[in-house]
Design the sequence.
């Protein structure tokens, strides 16, 4: 179900918080508290979760989910991805705004017009977004997702024009 392009990942449930069933949620929404505004969320198994209460915490939000009333029940949800139907996401307000999910499958085009590869995921390990690009030879590279390295993005055409760091797409020659 997670690969369904009609679903968008909005967050992931983390550790339990306290003893009354609250959970920590890492939200992928612009405003972390906005995750509660989308209505019921679902997981990969189709289970529904409704956020009854939410408040900010340091790097996450703390939420009480309807029907989750014990620490044990909250602990059982650790690692659950929370999705919303794509049609519940408002259209971007400007052309430079898009969902990370829209980048998956986009062709990455080099300055010479050659296809360098295809975006498989968008990762963030704390220092900014990275495009994981599958190359035609089967290798995978991570390219910083910044205006300098990806100056033009055309979601409708499913292409990203890239000016990658020197040597990023070259194969390591081990003789």
Sequence:
């Amino acid at each position: 179900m997670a690969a369904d392009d009609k679903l968008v990942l909005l967050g992931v449930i983390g550790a339990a918080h306290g003893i009354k069933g609250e959970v920590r949620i890492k939200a992928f929404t612009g405003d972390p508290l906005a995750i509660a505004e989308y209505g019921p969320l679902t997981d990969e198994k189709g289970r529904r979760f409704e956020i009854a209460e939410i408040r900010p915490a340091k790097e996450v939000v703390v939420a009480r989910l309807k029907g989750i009333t014990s620490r044990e029940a909250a602990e059982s949800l650790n690692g659950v991805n929370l999705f919303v139907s794509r049609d519940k996401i408002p259209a971007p307000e400007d052309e430079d705004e898009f969902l990370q999910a829209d980048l998956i499958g986009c062709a990455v085009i080099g300055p010479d017009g050659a296809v360098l590869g295809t975006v498989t995921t968008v990762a963030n390990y704390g220092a900014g977004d990275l495009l994981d690009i599958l190359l035609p030879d089967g290798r995978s590279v991570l390219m910083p997702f910044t205006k300098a390295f990806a100056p033009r993005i055309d979601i409708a055409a499913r292409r990203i024009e890239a000016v990658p760091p020197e040597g990023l797409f070259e194969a390591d020659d081990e003789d």
The first helix runs from residue 71 to 75. The chain has a mean pLDDT of 89.
